Amino acid sequence: MKNGRFGRIHPNNNFHLGADGWGALEVAVRFSQLDLEDTGFAGGKEQNITVGVNWHPNPHVRFMFNWVHASVDRSPVK
Predict the structure, then answer these.
(1) Where are the domains of the chain?
(2) Residue 76 pLDDT class (50, 70, 90 cuts)
């Protein structure tokens, strides 16, 4: 942990059509919330959930897909 660093993902088996290697698959889920209220400003609150899938066929290529669902609860005007 002391020597942590950012780097690319190295799949155990790179993708090869017709072979056993499929690369690496990464799945992520995130929930976030934002308070948009301030003095004299009724912005409401926003919540969103993100689901992401990353496929790394080899250390040099990444395909990414993210789906985000956001909802805003607006406060009545003050």
Answers:
(1) 24-73
(2) low
